[in-house]
Known about the structure:
The structure holds 2 protein chains of 2 kinds.
Chain A: H1 2-33, H2 35-50, H3 53-64, H4 68-92, H5 96-104, H6 109-139, H7 152-160, H8 164-196
Helix pairs in contact in A: 1-2, 1-4, 1-6, 2-4, 3-4, 4-6, 5-6, 6-8, 7-8
Chain B: H1 3-42, H2 44-57, H3 62-73, H4 77-101, H5 105-113, H6 118-148, H7 161-170, H8 173-210
Amino acid sequence: MTAKLVLEHLYLVFLSVLFSTAVGLPLGIFAYLYPPARKTVLWASELLQTVPALAMLGMIMLLFGAGKTTVVIGLVLYSLLPIVHNTFLGLESIGHGIKEAARGMGLSKWDRLFSIELPLAFPMVFTGIRIATVTSVGVAVFATSVGGGGLGSIINQGIRTQNMRLILFGTGTLMAMAVLFDGGMALIEKKLNRHSA
Amino acid sequence: MSFWELYGNKLLVAVGVHFLYVFASVASGFVVALTLGILLSRVPGIAKVALPLISVFQTIPGVVFIGILFLYMGMVPATAIIALAIYAVFPILKNTYAGLLSVDSSLLEAARGCGMSKIQSLFEVELPLAMPSIIGGLRMSTVYTVSWAVLASMIGLGGLGEFIYIGIATNNNALIVAGAIPAGIMAISLSLAIDFVKRRITRQGREVSLK
């Protein structure tokens, strides 16, 4: 039963990071390419994170019912901020010289984006994905309140039945998960940075 | 009866209680974090071990802090405030430490050359220069705490979470929204207010350095 909850938790985190990358990356690129929309996009992703997680999940539950769909949508909205911001910052911080050289070589806007700018920005984007992953591990604790399962159900059960061992077990697993993701992805990040340096 | 007539007063009380939780816990967290951050910045050797440990602790979800404290202290407001304050410490502590360490060493030497003592250099040079970073941490903590304070109602301590929990449990849309929107507004307005203070302080800093 415990293994199932751990897997469920991982499944929720994995799906939501996947989707929020799929949504956040284009949004970050859009903010970079289209300055008039920049403020709105960055501000909106920041706004989403100020809504309490439980409230966000509750409101999404009204639309999609209790279950995993609700949790994943909530987590996606919640983890957009680091991905959108880092994509934008990564693209924005590329040296002018490089951008001009690419233009001077006669590369089109899209060629520049896909073969020069995005590869250079990728380490920064990856940092955003790492932050989003670690945040999702923590926020997914609320999944259980809207019928999504995961490790939160162990913790909640522990609190309800005043069972310290259960609480500590759930928390320990959760912390291990967060630390492993953080450390593992930080290692990859280091490699990426060495490559691009 | 309209929603407002039914729940208006309760909602206002909940907003007030929620704000008090946030204020009390962020204020006490700020004092602790600032002190610890300054102490750690004096002993970078210890900080190198302590900071990673602290970020591991930060992965503990707020539910657990509140849950465990609840088992020991029971259903009193202090339970929620202490749990939230512990959580609020981390971002401020990290930013205080990082801000203090990022002060240019030539400025520290200049301060020493002017005959400033270590304490003077800390209060008149390092802390003012680190202030934007410290306030950035304060802002992050405040926004998080507004969000985590929802959990106070999990152990029956009121606040806006009460609306959200009851709404989720009874499938009542209006109650969830009534809890969520004020919490969102509170987070955004506090964050804007702190940004405003930050801008004023950094501007002052620049003026001082021009003299």
